[in-house]
Amino acid sequence: MNVDQTMEMLNGEKAEQLFAALYGADQTEGQKERYRELLSGYRDKFGDGDVKLFSSPGRTEISGNHTDHNHGKVLAGSINLDCVGVAAENHSSLVKIVSVTFGQEFTVDLNDLEPSRRKAGTEDLVKGLLKGFQESGYEVGGFNAYITSNVISSAGVSSSAAFEMLLCSMINTLFNGGRISTVAYAHIGKYAENHYWDKASGLLDQMACAVGGLITIDFMEPSDPKVEKIDFDFGSRNHSLIIVQTGRGHADLSADYSAVPAEMKKVAEFFGKEYCSEITEKDVIDNLAQVREYAGDRSVLRALHFFEENKRVEIMVKALKEGKFDVFLENITASGNSSWKWLQNCFTNSSYQEQGITIALALTELFIGDKKRGACRVHGGGFAGVIMAMLPNDLVDEYVEYIEKALGQGNAYRMSIRPYGAICVSEMC
Fold first, then answer.
1. What whole-number percentage of the chain has pLDDT above 90?
2. How would you label 70-105 residue by residue, b for 16+ Cβ within 10 Å and e otherwise?
3. Burial of 253: CB neighbours in 10 Å, binned 0-12, 13-18, 19+
4. Which of 68, 144, 340, 345 has the fewest C-beta atoms lying within 10 Å of its C-beta?
């Protein structure tokens, strides 16, 4: 379909149903207008022709903080903020990207996919994705993409992974007949971040964005992680998930992030293993003095967090399946406390007077303590970015006013879990 036909498609009944599922019934018309503006922008930049629409969500991590890179377990969900794009083949060796949100426009030649010396930025990430497809034996070709995003940037809701999975969906649809699995998407995104950003990422962000819905993932076998969708509606419990931006991004924190998996792996190394999933908590405790001397105390604490967090994921999944929402909330709090005290990813030691996350958590804990309802925790990679609060709906407006008075207006976002991951919207309408 050309641009006009695709715009007309947005008026159909299937589009109405899909947009209600993606964004909520009250957001449908506004989102359709967003897509129409995107299509118009594409036509102004690249002309008409056969185009397709794509969407890829950000993600929320509910439990399993920093466990995926050591082949642990997570509970996560895709959210109703997304990266959307229009794309079409251009029958050349050039991939042309326009990112409206970030004012970026660049071209990547498929014949030159070497990373830049600095290994940073969107262009290197795109090169890494394209190279990842090639290395995995999939087809790639030249295409035009016109993209916008409302996923909060540098804030722990995976704006980068949403972008990566959007491009994966485009390449899968345009050049591979839709045959590539979401697990393969995640591995390609991880490859791009590992080799073209020198970022020691796991698979959590990419999997949560690609698969969609509320999911639990067991990364024990990372080449084939076990993914299970959890059928649970937070709205049915009259609770909302609130993400609070604490005012600082992740741009200069790569060393902090990379140290987390490295230190956990150092503990495993003592036992001749590579990952913490290959050892037990009892192993560490039974050999504590020697492990502390070999790996260091923070490494030991981070490994203990890993073991306990895996248990929490299992408890929380079971609680959701059995409708024990109070147990679920208790373990959100426990997960947050472990991240703060054992994992120690609520601020960076290189700038210990800057503690936006811990300030936001302290204020939220005071609020929850007063109301005696709700839970909160650091969200995502940590060190900077956002926190998550799970609150009864009747407290949300009061909490938002309270936290934004302290941290600034427009910093609190009310989220919902959307049922779809990275998709070709055109093929679902």
1. 77
2. bbbbbbbbbbbbbbbbbbbbbeeeebbbbbbeeeee
3. buried
4. 340
